[in-house]
Each structure stands twice: as structure tokens, then as C-alpha cells.
Amino acid sequence: MILITGGAYQGKRKFAGERFGISEEKMLDGGVCSFDEVFSAECVYGYHKLIKRLMAQREDPVRYTERLCRENSGMILILDEVGCGIIPLDKGERQWREQTGRCGCTAAGHSVQVWRVTCGIAQIIKGEEI
Q1: HEC string of 43-99?
Q2: Given a cut of 80, is residue 130 above it in pLDDT?
Q3: In CATH terms, is domain 2-126 a member of 3.30.470.20?
């Protein structure tokens, strides 16, 4: 697995496409894709949105992420950093941030590479550049 993270609208998808040769058509949108198709996807972006959808269905997103790491270890996972900034007053939003962070840690732990993209500039923060 390769994890690409960073803030919203920082160029993560563009980086994934250029660096790893993935076309937009092969990238699944975590905000709308089915939960099952992620297990065979080459790349999923907006994984933080998928986490929110899982929580709305009362599914455990960390367990789902652990399963994803086992069953689709060759994929590229794109996850927005959502834990920075002002802490939301809404309890559900705070729980979503926490679960997103836990899922990110799980994915990073199973990843051979972790990239952080800021202002379109990618830095490898885990693993070796290949």
C-alpha cells in the first residue's frame, strides 16, 4: 500500500496520477463509491469521506481499514488531513476526525511508502523512493 496525505486541495490526486501513472478513470471517489469496490481498487481518493460514510452506517472504520490493508495491499490510498485547525463543537465531527486519524495511522503502518503533499510539493515521509 501507498498512502498519500495532506490538506484539502493540495494536489494529492495530481501527484498520484503523475508519480504512479494512474488515470482519473482508475481513481475511485471515497465519497460515493461502494464499500465493496474499494477492496479491488487501484486508487481511492477522499478516503476521509468514506470513513464518514462508514460511521453513518455504524460500521467501524478502523476495522474496515485493517481489512482493506490486508485485502488490497497494492493500492494507493489518498486521505485528507482533517485533524488540524479549530476543534469542532459538534461531537460527531470530533469523532470523525479521531477515526480518520486512527485510520490514517493504520494505513501508514501497513504502507511501504507514505507521501505528504503540500502546495503541490510531495515529500516522502516513510519508505524509499523507487
Answers
A1: EEECHHHHHHHHHHCCCCHHHHHHHHHHHCCCCEEEEECCCCCCCCCCHHHHHHHHH
A2: no
A3: no
